[in-house]
Design goal:
This protein is an alpha/beta fold. It has five domains: about 10-65 and about 180-195, no CATH class; about 70-165, OB fold (Dihydrolipoamide Acetyltransferase, E2P) (Beta Barrel), CATH 2.40.50; about 205-270 and about 685-720, no CATH class; about 285-480, Rossmann fold, CATH 3.40.50.300; about 490-645, Rossmann fold (3-Layer(aba) Sandwich). About 40% of the residues lie in helices and about 15% in strands. It contains 27 helices and 21 strands. The chain has a seven-stranded parallel β-sheet with strand order 11-12-10-13-14-9-15, sandwiched between helices. Helix 21 links the parallel strand 18 (about 550-555) and strand 19. Helix 9 packs across helix 11 (about 245-270), helix 11 (about 245-270) crosses helix 27 (about 705-715) and helix 12 (about 285-290) runs antiparallel to helix 14. It binds adenosine-5'-diphosphate and magnesium ion. The site of magnesium ion has 4 residues, from helix 14.
């Protein structure tokens, strides 16, 4: 369970406050400012946890439980000390003193028939001293440790009771919280909300008995009551790993809310208008296809047709194009741009790095300028005057195709009539940036404020189907599942770092055969400066070891002009070896390069390794990828490298990556649909998603009121996440 650190029960200061709480009302001294500001800001504090409505409290479910339903004799609790298990005991206070060594602390001793136990409090209120006066009978819960002076509990939870007072018959919930909200307070607030808030069924019987019959869902209200206060005989394991039927009901309802709102976002998009761009025979598109030096693969033809069909419709396209590295996505984007330009609109292509954007610029302007299409380049590195000129050509509409980096979405850039925005390597951008580009629809020719450009997002990180369905709000997906012909598969080898000389010999050999080589320097996450230093050192070593070759260096700190000139030399085969940091990770395309060396491959993630390896194997020569590693390898690093050796299939790699890392980390930047899920886990609960989809469709079609009730219960205003 993540976030144990935030678990306030573990926080001694908090536990001390909680223990003191019942006594505070009587004790005059503690009734000052602290107590008053505590209650007045309670609503605000709950709001911080997202708990605004009673139903939010009811849906705030425990992250774990404490078993206070049994008592242990003190001697037994001491015997089990150090096992990390909390114990609950009762006893009479036999001594109570404040000592000052080594620091001020309250030391209380209690005893029952079986033995004695010391309770130690480092933070305490005066009222607590009184609450635990000699002769008082205390119920105490905490972890027994073997302290210096014998067995003790530090900051246990304590409560004065009358001997024989009944024990709770339910497990005690521990709720996710933040500092400043005590568990006792949350329990009371949630318990109150639970008893006051009826939770009527939102799922119509026709849905429960129909498509969901096989799930045997229990009534939601019962599940909530059970989860907030389970009887001790419920399976603790099933409650803890959330496989309990009550948890399944909760997760199902949550997924259902998500699926309904994804569908509604989709419908809302259908309400918006986008420019229609019919395919025109004899136009730019036809001429461009005729001029291409190769034929499209079957997969490319298919996705081009899907995209073209979207763009002929009067509603904005919102499509993700997935294709493994080297599958030929750029040409697909170029064809879409041609269709937009043919229809009299501008197209924009945004890429996450300047190297990649510039490469797109060169390639597309080489393809399209001969056909009479003005292409404009816009990046942060342009001089202010150049930037102004470029922006002016964009604003006047003279530029038909605009290519660049984040610079495209800056305020100063205004489009005359943007009809298509393409985002390459879209997973590198956040939701906000993608929205910004879409918001750039033309300033002058827009017929209605609701008109938005068509949007095409491209990614080489394949997303398994269930993830795509649940993480990406409202997205159509096209897949290129075929590589262009004539590629020879890349052979991947693992090489111990100690055999560097052999690797250098191979570099030499490849260059002697007229081939080119990438040498990727180790990723050093902690320090960019260190990473740079290593790159420079590697570069110098290779220059010295390969005197007859031209070796270049490219890294993130290089001024753009130098970067461009190095990349130029490498593209034109004036340079045989390119030493690089991960700046070449995405998209660089030099088909003559056939050897990829990655140093400290164990430090890279699978997706990154796959991207890097994809820089070779783009021509017809046999390509090799050498993954150098430093032993010993951690188990997950070993697994990653083995995966790389075994397969070059991006989808298979993504599947294993997901297995190794789990979905949250896998997708990196938070995706919009994910923000809605608190309880469902897309890995373990993926099987529920299809049921949720079916139920969502049925409810939207036949039970609009149930839809509203369900959404308001689960989302209550959080639907704005779905705009991206
Ligand atoms: P990615 O999908 O990784 O962005 P690119 O668009 O950079 O791939 O394409 C990789 C290489 O394959 C480029 O050199 C491109 O010109 C070439 N290519 C793309 N489509 C074809 C095709 N149908 N036949 C031959 N080569 C192609
Ligand atoms: Mg690409």
């Amino acid at each position: 369970m993540p976030g144990t650190a935030a678990d306030p029960i573990q926080d001694p200061a908090d536990a001390a406050k909680e223990a003191a709480a019942p006594a505070r009302d009587k004790a005059g001294e503690a009734k000052g400012k602290a107590a008053r500001s505590g209650t007045s800001s309670a609503a605000a504090r709950l709001a911080k946890l997202g708990l605004r409505r009673p139903v939010d409290l009811v849906l705030h479910l425990p992250m774990r439980y404490e078993d206070e339903t049994t008592l242990a004799p003190i001697a037994d609790a001491i015997r089990r000390a150090g096992l990390g298990q909390p114990a609950q005991v009762e006893g009479e206070v036999i001594s109570n003193e404040v000592t000052f060594r080594p620091r001020r602390q309250l030391v209380v001793k209690i005893a029952d028939d079986s033995g004695e136990l010391t309770l130690r409090f480092l933070n305490f209120y005066g009222s607590q001293t009184k609450q635990m006066a000699e002769g008082v009978w205390l119920r105490v819960r905490g972890e027994v440790r073997g302290g210096f002076f014998g067995a003790e509990m530090v900051h246990p939870t304590v409560r004065p009771v009358v001997p024989g007072e009944a024990l709770p018959d339910r497990l005690t919930p521990v709720y996710p919280s933040t500092a400043g909200i005590a568990q006792a307070y949350l329990r009371k607030a949630i318990g109150g909300a639970l008893s006051r808030t009826p939770m009527p069924e939102t799922l119509p019987q026709a849905v429960l008995q129909g498509p969901l019959a096989r799930l045997h869902l229990r009534p939601l209200a019962d599940c909530l009551r059970l989860l907030h206060a389970p009887p001790p005989q419920e399976s603790e394991a099933a409650l803890a790993d959330r496989s309990h039927p009550a948890w399944q009901r909760i997760k199902f309802d949550e997924l259902l809310a998500q699926q309904i709102s994804l569908r509604r976002a989709h419908a809302a998009r259908r309400e918006k208008t986008a420019p229609t761009m019919p395919r025109r025979e004899g136009g730019l598109l036809t001429r461009f296809l005729a001029a291409l030096p190769f034929r499209l693969t079957g997969a490319q033809e298919r996705v081009v047709a899907e995209i073209a069909a979207d763009m002929t419709r009067p509603h904005p396209m919102h499509r993700l194009l997935q294709g493994d590295v080297g599958s030929g996505k750029t040409i697909v984007a170029a064809l879409a741009a041609c269709q937009a330009i043919d229809a009299g609109y501008q197209a924009a292509l945004m890429a996450p790095t300047e190297i990649l954007a510039e490469q797109h610029y060169r390639k597309l302007s080489a393809w399209l300028e001969p056909l009479g299409v003005p292409v404009v380049w816009l990046a942060g590195s342009l001089k202010a005057r150049e930037k102004r000129e470029a922006a002016a050509r964009v604003e006047s509409g003279e530029a038909q195709l605009v290519i660049g980096t984040h610079a495209l979405i800056q305020d100063a850039v205004r489009f005359a009539r943007l009809g298509l925005s393409v985002v390459d390597e879209q997973h590198r951008f956040g939701v906000a940036q993608r929205l910004a580009l879409r918001g750039k629809a033309g300033a002058s020719d827009v017929p209605a404020p609701d008109t938005v450009p068509h949007q095409l997002m491209m990614s080489a990180t394949p997303i398994p189907r269930t993830l795509a369905m649940t993480y990406y709000a409202d997205l159509d997906v096209s897949v290129i599942d075929e590589l262009p012909p004539g590629r020879t598969p890349i052979v991947t080898r693992l090489v111990n770092d100690a055999r560097r000389d052999e690797v250098i010999a191979r570099v030499h050999h490849a260059a002697a055969e007229g081939r080119q080589v990438y040498w990727v320097c180790p990723l050093i996450e902690e320090s960019e400066a260190l990473q740079l230093q290593t790159a420079v050192e590697t570069y110098e070593t290779l220059v010295a070891a390969l005197p007859d070759l031209r070796v270049g260096l490219v890294h993130g700190r290089l001024p753009p002009a130098e970067k461009a000139s190095v990349m130029d030399d490498f593209s034109a085969n004036r340079m045989q070896v390119l030493v690089a940091t991960t700046v070449i990770e995405v998209g660089v395309d030099v088909p003559n390069a056939s050897l990829m060396v990655i140093e400290h491959a164990e430090r890279f993630g699978l997706a990154q390794l796959h991207q890097l390896r994809g820089r070779v194997g783009r021509g017809s020569a046999e390509s090799v990828c050498l993954l150098m590693y430093q032993a010993p390898l951690s188990p997950t690093a070993r697994e990653r490298l083995a995966t790389m050796r075994e397969t070059t299939d991006g989808f298979e790699i993504a599947r294993r990556d997901l297995e190794i890392r789990g979905p949250g980390e896998f997708l990196g930047a938070r995706q919009s649909g994910e923000a809605m899920l608190r309880f469902a886990d897309l890995q373990t609960d993926a099987w529920l998603v299809e049921y949720a989809q079916e139920a969502a469709e049925l409810m939207l079609a036949r039970f609009p009121e149930a839809v509203e009730a369900h959404l308001s219960r689960w989302l209550g205003g959080r639907e704005h996440y779905l705009k991206a």
